[in-house]
Input
Amino acid sequence: MQHIAIIGNGISGVTAARHIRKNSDFKITIISAESDYFFSRTALMYVYMGHMKFEHTQPYESWFWDKNKINLLNGFVEEIDADSNTLKFSSGQSLQYDKLIIATGSKPNKFGWPGQDLKGVMGMYHKQDLEQLEQCAPNNKVCKRAVIVGGGLIGIELAEMLRSRNIEVTFLVREKSFWGSVLPPEESELINKHIKEHHIDLRLGCNLEQINADASGQVKSVKILETGEEIECQVVGLTAGVSPNIEFLKTSKIEYQRGVLVNRFLETNIKDIYAIGDCAEQREAIGERRTIEAVWYTGRMMGETVAQTICGNRIKYNPGHWFNSAKFLDIEYQTYGWVWAKPKPHESRFYWEAENENICIHISYDTSSRTLIGINTFGLRMRHDFFDKVLNKGETIDYVISHLSDANFDPEFYKSYHKDILKQFNINAPKAVSLKPKSWKRIFTKQL
Amino acid sequence: MKTVQRIGLALFFLGLGLFISLIFLGDFKMNSEQLNSFVNQKGITSEVFISKMNETVVDKTFKGPFAISNLTLTAFNEANTNHRANKEWGKVIWDKPHSFSYQVLKGAGSGFIVTHKWLLWWLTFGIGIIGALLFILPQILILGPAGIKNNGIYHNSATNRGWIGWLTFIFLVGFYILLYFYPDFIVNWTYLVDPISQALSGNMASQWFLYGFMYCVVMLVMGVRMYIKYRHNKYQTLRTTSVLFFQIVFAFLIPELMVRFEKPWYDFKNAFPLDYDFFFSWNLDSLIASGGIGLFILVWGVVLSLVIVPIMVYFFGKRWYCSWVCGCGGLAETLGDPYRQLSDKSLKAWQIERWLVHGVLAFAIIMTGFTLYTYFSGSQMVMGIKTQTIQDIYGFLIGSIFAGVIGTGFYPIFGNRVWCRFGCPLAAYMGIIQRFKSRFRITTNGGQCISCGNCSTYCEQGIDVRAYAQKGENIVRASCVGCGVCSAVCPRGVLKLENGPEQGRINPTEILLGNDINLMDYLK
Output
């Protein structure tokens, strides 16, 4: 019987294991040094905020692994010996495998800032980061102020976490506007305002120069590059993005650049070794996607795919249309297709925002054919299935606007903004469109 | 704002403290005239009881209810023992001892409490309500911008089975034990609501009127909390309004006013088998004796359970009842909302749930079968078992212990839907329809789930919502009461409660939406 070893018990590795189990009776071992059981990394914030206990972030009860004959091994892999198919652990033990899946995820970026390894400086990625934060910022007496460096998704989540315990937060964002490299200016500005509504001291266009320590080696303050201002703080959160967590395999024969290099079959340069999730780097970008995608959903999809290959149905990793979602404090965000921060030459845009309500949509479409390219929604929920079909079929923006009732996924009785959106849309539309009533038939039809 | 909240909390505990201490206070005195009229009214023929009461109780003043209750029960027991031994069945007093003692005490109350009912109402209920509102209202500002605010729930000993939770548990369980089994000890509380009861039905308040009134007050005050907490969520605010309306109007005002017009006390929304004694002979007799309205209630009760309930569940799921109409649900969704996260999500709990809730349903149906057989045949026994015994067991175990003491008392320990999930026979009945023949489902939004677990954590029915959502499957479960909180707490817009065509409602998937289209095809 083949032995499949998986390094990493995050969403990628666990999805791969589950699907290998569905399709085979191979022996499966999942290795992790971070936690005994799979947990949802995206939910760590809720543990600190008191919405959940850590056990609630674990999607499967502990009997699940035994029942499905998936071995869990707590250990840190120090070395991969690809010649002898052996993993060597920091404990001195070793493990033989027939096939290996590397799914080690990411680690927070550190850009060589002076003081970046002081006590009280941390990322917010691993379970251990959560434990450290609980220690350094248990309340607003121990931690009066925290400074967060890096304006992306983890940064704003960390800010929300700290604010939930009434800790003052200064948020340093390198760009001129929050997540400005991803979000178009309108949405980005909406979030800027919302961040301030939550009494977060948002500093746009600010870089960290250095972190200063007190006599005991504990963080005391940070210095801002642009202004030279020194801000007193007890915790510094480094949330300037993540990069593949692959230090341990740099002595092996596995090829890597920023991540482990893989082909479209998620195979590395070494036979029977695969890499999936955040730590994998595509040799060539797939469509408009980045070569490294550190997103929950792509990790899961790679897991689903590699399981097929390992079980004898060798297929390419071929993700469908891009989608993503997030929550910025109280504002939910969903995106389907591509809405770039700056429109590309052939693109046109339609933007609508509700008055004083933190709700907006932004649609990108092809100028000449009017085909939908992508949509961002803030404060409105949309049906994934609807946009997947629209993008598959190459429907136009006019179709989307007239079928908003099919697309909408807000809870029942929520206020509808469709008429408002339509009114604004028709001002500049070449041909006025009208709203179609919701049709269950259309919603449930698979138009692939 | 924090100061206002502290003052509110202090006032609340002042009111509550006085309310509790009332149990031990008050003067009770019964003269021979009162005893005579009581004996006549109850039709008591036991000379043992009368002489014993004359000897030990009459014309004496008692501080607090315990001594007089004790002496009354002594007289009661002595009389019954005596008459039973002599087989003088006509002289036996058939009442339940503490209910009997309650009736004696209710008439014997005298002194400050009885002469200052409104004043004491204000000092207990009044101050308690004002205090609670002062604590709750500032949350509009404290919680910050509208949105899901579950901060600190698992850091708070009140909502995380800490010492406050356990104290609340003891208080609630104690309250229900007194209410169901020792009403004579809380007779002072009933005086406070006498004026309100008299204004509505014209009668003095019983412990059940007191309970109904407290139920409405608690739901209203905690409903205000719901309105603030979920002010961004129209499903929640409408639903809260609906349960408040049905509790106050249908379960409280209408039945009391019907009594005023000498009609039977009836809650028009309380459907059998939750309303387990609907077919009991005393109820059927009373309805038939009430003429047109009684007959209407009889027909309505049957139509409600056999026609309206299943049709509504088909179109809207059982939520139309459990989360929009029901009184038990109404209390769970207002008073119980802070405890919803404490429900057990394990597979084990689900297995226990299915056995228990369907077991109670079977019990209710069998008991009703016995009841109807006895009613129409006149035979007291069915298959060698006394119908009365079965009814008593059900009333005690299910009606009182499960629905009351455990159902509400255990809020702070097992979450707010213990009764609805594990015990309610109506929920079980509707659940079967919801699972197999309904348009209701919670739709999972393609591949957007990130397995965070908010939905499962805050599911009061202990459904592991995430287990479905992370597979891209819709949630179709018998136990779902459609409270809509999983959808509300989801940070990624993954869940939507909706009614739609039955086809495709249950959609097991292997590969989630968003991956390779061919891969999805390959696996079908």
